[in-house]
């Protein structure tokens, strides 16, 4: 479906949880976040129902599961199997920090996962701990290499958030190339400030090229990461809810009122 500015919306990011097993400095700037009550988190059945209508009524053909950290959700492979089996879905993808991926990659691939984006901002143990709050670099690297060995396409996300990031970027890009992965540079941004399209990084995308909508873990729909407009999905009229959020998509992102990127799907 086209939005009001003739952009074809064919991509949905779905946050399956707002919780994460890391505490990255640029993603969760404070520890006083209010998380969604467990009873309000969308079930896999509801997510499947939403994706089915998105794919067959609105032309959505790419789904990316996000969080928080999606791999902490129980039996996530079952949701991947459901989504990848839906008619007209061409890509089922996942964004993860990778620290749980090593033991799960084979199962995820067998159930239809096409690709993963994995956060990796440093190859130094101490700096990794400073950024994420945990000394888990070895687990993240193991997850990346397990995905590669199971023929899952891997892209490494590198957030450029300080001067040290610029010094490390080449090392991470060379590492990605050496294992058969790709990488992308992501400009750090404050979602509570007006979005700027003037940058030379791979992400965030320029607004006029944006083709996505977002579904949060509690059933809230967002037309734009940098916007305060929200639509609560009506499970009795999913089609109207999706149409409404696409038509609310602004010509340009401004700012969000979210307290953390982790709460709105990254």
Explain what this protein looks like in three dimensions:
- With 266 residues, the protein is α/β, with parallel strands linked by helices.
- It has a single domain (11-264), classed as Aldolase class I (TIM Barrel), CATH 3.20.20.
- Helix content is 29%, strand content 17%.
- The protein is built from 7 helices and 9 strands, in the order βαβαβαβααβαββββα.
- It has helices at 44-57, 76-84, 105-110, 125-132, 137-149, 163-179, 238-247; strands at 11-15, 62-66, 91-96, 115-119, 153-160, 182-187, 212-215, 220-222, 230-232.
- A 9-stranded mixed beta sheet has the order 6-5-4-3-2-1-7-8-9.
- Helix 1 packs parallel to helix 2.
- The longest helix is centred in the middle third of the chain and has 17 residues, at 163-179.
- The radius of gyration is 18 Å and the shape is globular.
Task: List the SSEs and their pairings.
Blueprint: E1 11-15, H1 44-57, E2 62-66, H2 76-84, E3 91-96, H3 105-110, E4 115-119, H4 125-132, H5 137-149, E5 153-160, H6 163-179, E6 182-187, E7 212-215, E8 220-222, E9 230-232, H7 238-247
Parallel strand pairs: 1-2, 1-7, 2-3, 3-4, 4-5, 5-6
Antiparallel strand pairs: 7-8, 8-9
């Amino acid at each position: 479906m086209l939005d009001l500015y003739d952009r074809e919306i064919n991509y949905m990011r779905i946050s399956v949880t707002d919780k994460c097993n890391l505490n990255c400095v640029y993603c969760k700037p404070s520890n006083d976040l209010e998380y969604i009550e467990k009873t309000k988190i969308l079930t896999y059945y509801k997510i499947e129902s939403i994706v089915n209508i998105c794919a067959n009524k609105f032309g959505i053909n790419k789904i990316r599961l996000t969080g928080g950290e999606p791999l902490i959700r129980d039996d996530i492979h079952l949701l991947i199997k459901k989504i990848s089996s839906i008619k007209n879905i061409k890509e089922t993808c996942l964004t993860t920090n990778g620290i749980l991926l090593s033991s799960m990659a084979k199962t995820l691939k067998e159930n239809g996962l096409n690709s993963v984006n994995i956060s990796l901002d440093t190859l130094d143990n101490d700096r990794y701990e400073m950024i994420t709050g945990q000394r888990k670099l070895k687990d993240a690297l193991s997850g990346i290499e397990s995905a590669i060995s199971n023929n899952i396409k891997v892209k490494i996300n590198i957030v450029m958030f300080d001067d040290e990031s610029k010094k490390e970027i080449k090392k991470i890009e060379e590492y990605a190339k050496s294992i058969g992965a790709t990488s992308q540079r992501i400009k750090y941004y404050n979602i509570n400030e007006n979005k700027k399209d003037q940058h030379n990084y791979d992400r965030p995308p320029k607004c006029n090229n944006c083709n996505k909508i977002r579904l949060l873990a509690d059933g809230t729909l967002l037309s734009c990461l940098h916007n305060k407009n929200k639509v609560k999905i009506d499970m009795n009229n999913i089609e109207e809810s999706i149409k409404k959020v696409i038509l609310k998509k602004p010509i340009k992102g401004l700012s969000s009122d979210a307290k953390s990127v982790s709460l709105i799907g990254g």
